[in-house]
Amino acid sequence: MTGPRRTIVLAFVPSALGREAARVARDQAALTGARVVVVNTTRADRLVDLRWADEQQVAEVVALLRRGGVAHEVRHAADDRLAAEVVLDVAAEVGAALIVIGVRRRSPVGKLVLGSTAQRILLDARCPVLAVPATPPDDALPR
Amino acid sequence: MDNLAALLDGFATVAQPQYLLYALFGVFVGTAVGVLPGIGPAMTIALLLPLTYSLDATAAIIVFAGIYYGGMYGGSTTSILLNTPGESASIVTALEGHKMARLGRGAAALATAAIGSFVAGTIATVALTFVAPVVARWAVQLGEPDYFALMVVAFVTVGALLGSSVSRGLAALALGLFLGLVGTDTLTGQQRFTFGVPSFADGVDVVVVAVGLFAVGEALHVGSRLRHGPVHLVPVERGWRSWMRREDWRRSWKPWLRGTAIGFPVGTIPAGGADVATFLSYATEKKLAGPHRAEFGKGAIEGVAGPESANNAAASGVLVPLLTLGLPTTATAAIIIVAFQSYGIQPGPLLFESQSSLVWALVASLYVGNLMLVVLNLPLVGMWVKVLQIPRHYLYAGILLFGALGSFALNFAPVDVLVLLGVGLLGFVMRRYGYPVAPLVVGMILGPMAEDRLRRSLAISQGDLTTLVASPFAATAYGVMALLLVAGLWLKRRERAAGAVTSGHSSDDTSGHSSDDASGHASDDVSGPASGSEQDAGHDPGSGTRPSHAATSEETNR
Amino acid sequence: MTTPTSVATSPDDGRTALAALRRRPGELVAALGVLALGIFVLVDTRTIVVPGSANTLGPRAFPYLVGALLVGAGITLLVGLARGRHGEEEGGEDVDASVPTDWRTVALLVAVFLAHVLTITTIGWPLAATLLFGGSAIVLGARPWWRALALGLVLAVTVQVVFGGLLGLSLPPGPLFESVAVFRG
């Protein structure tokens, strides 16, 4: 295969919703022959960050993509920037054709305290964004 | 038997709906702060002292007792799930408890800790119910020199034992004594060390000092070295609700009782507080483990059951000298004395007579709080995990906000908030250079009382200094002090040795032995790239080298 | 900062101790501060007026004891430092002992706190508290900055309503909220 390959950026969170988003990204990549860049980050500003995947969770996503025969790359590191900024910067850097994110309903208070990564990505992305809805119930706790 | 009647009256008070709610609020807040590393019960009660401006004494004391007890429970939760003890008294729990959690036995560890805490807390409260009035009745007969002797014992033991270095502890104690001197001398009406500042004529407010040292000082200290390491992940298993097995019950009940038997007496003497009791219990359990001894260090349930019980029993034990003699032996106890004082109540032998209903309501609230905690603790683990997700910047900003609020609400004068900042900076410097803050608070609270007792003693004896050691009690007290010092320093050394072996933690406000286990733990747990070929490319985004697995999967893709 | 030349007792191990001290001069300053306070207490105690009718132990005796304790502790600390015995910094889960002290953050936090103290009476407690919460959160790394301020405002107004309105603490609402009834006790 020659020429520039399409790249899909997957904003990954270790939850049922995140795994659903990963499946969607895999299917999209398999259809178009694109490769997937999995992004998972934390600001490391709290003791427990449930949106930060551990090695096993990253390995599961990698296994999922590999089973689908999809080329992939993992960006898994602590970063002082906000998660949305990291995803958008990675998308710009790899010239992403598509960003896949999971979206779920948030309370106004939750939005005020934590902000909405998905909203920020949807509004600021320079490429199409595929929003994967939560199929309830979305378990917030990791397995 | 009047004690039981009085206790029943206490229960009648606590059973009123509004006091039950205050107790619930107390244990809830207490558990939350116990869960949060870096925020101990001393800081929390200091921050909530403004409640005393608007609540009645019984309600406030019930809230503070709940926080005091809840903190002990909460500390075990984080120890077990995250290996990060919220309290110095939970360090030992992390040793075996976290290992158990990693083996998928986290639920049993949490359960044995919670039930053990309940059993020990209840037995120790029963002991408190019967021991405290006896001590109080006996203490009424003590003379002025005896009281002075008791305070010297408290000064020396707290100064020398609550911290990593004896000279720093004594320096902190002397600082506290000095702050206690500022103001108007009660006996002669002379101003001392007021620097001509009118607001110092009434002395430096001990609430401002407590909040400044424990809240503002801690926030500044955290700000100076904010942790930015990789985060811990919670290994909560889905089946955490699963109960203890029969085998676990069999192995737990003896350590629960032994922990109680060790914890309560250790708590009553000024020998370094609850963490000493937990280390003693751990050592005992290890010795008595018999066939299970090999499991120690790998997740022995006895190593969770014993120390957690000792921890809670010691918490009750601390209340004995606090309520009967007015002697605080830990930082949290000192802050509780401040709370009493803000109602004009002086803990001491007369407390059981003059404030009988308040004291017995407090004791009754301990029984009730214990029950609430064991019921609340296990089902709410998921919620405590949420508490751990609060970002540090909001947490410490909130601590500063409530600290400033409490000082401002004293007199509604901004100058008090300015003094708060000054004390906060002092607290920061002390933390930064290893001076324990607890002796300062104890010195500031007990200093004026000790001076009073000393001057009265010598007035009675007309200047004869031998009066200070003349009574058998005072002489014994000084003798016991020497023993406590030797034993306490020996225990500290053992504790530190144990801490070094197991890369012990440091923690809230009392102990200074610190190490950096958290980042080490994190790196073997979550951080770092996924193993082997799953190497992430996030570190050099611009480079042309693609991770090997990407290349291989591209081949498979073809 | 003070140069640590005055402390060297024995030249041999004094040298390494001095080198260590030069790296952490603050510790020396703290110990000297304890000593200086002790000397001040001893000197200032002489100015305390003793009424003629004083009983055996007047208002000066205890301060002398405290001053002596401070001086004693200060000297012990200095001797310990000269022998290379350093304080163990207080640990904590949110404290990273491996990073250098971030004095800039401490200074900014103090500045934000001072701003809060100075503005309570002019702009009222809710806004001053917003400034304190938002400012310190931003200094400690909150992003984006407007979210920290918005959260601070929500928190401050809640506290004002609960403590000022319901519990009856007379927190000054300030000109902006002066007319809002729930903000006053």
From TrEMBL, chain A:
Molecular-function GO term, any one: ATP binding
Residue ranges of domain UspA in the record: 6-133
InterPro entries linked to this entry: Rossmann-like_a/b/a_fold, Universal_stress_UspA, UspA
Keyword Signal among UniProt keywords: no
Keyword Kinase applies: no
Keyword terms of this UniProt record: ATP-binding, Nucleotide-binding
Recorded family membership: Belongs to the universal stress protein A family.
Name of the protein this chain belongs to: Nucleotide-binding universal stress UspA family protein
Classification of source organism: Bacteria, Bacillati, Actinomycetota, Actinomycetes, Micrococcales
UniProtKB/TrEMBL annotation, chain B:
Protein name: Putative tricarboxylic transport membrane protein
Domain DUF112: 20-441
Assigned keywords, A-Z: Membrane, Transmembrane, Transmembrane helix
Keyword Iron included in the entry's annotation: no
Species the sequence originates in: Sediminihabitans luteus
Residue ranges of the TM segments: 20-39, 46-69, 107-135, 147-164, 170-188, 200-220, 325-345, 357-382, 394-421, 433-450, 470-491
Biased composition, class Basic and acidic residues, residue ranges: 506-524
Keyword Transmembrane helix: yes
Matches recorded under Pfam families: TctA (PF01970)
Chain positions covered by the region annotation Disordered: 500-558
UniProtKB/TrEMBL annotation, chain C:
Transmembrane segments: 28-49, 61-82, 103-125, 145-169
Name of the protein in question: Putative tricarboxylic transport membrane protein
InterPro entries with a match to the protein in the record: DUF1468
Domain (DUF1468): residue spans on this chain: 29-172
Superkingdom of the source species: Bacteria
Keywords: Membrane, Transmembrane, Transmembrane helix
A Pfam cross-reference name: TctB
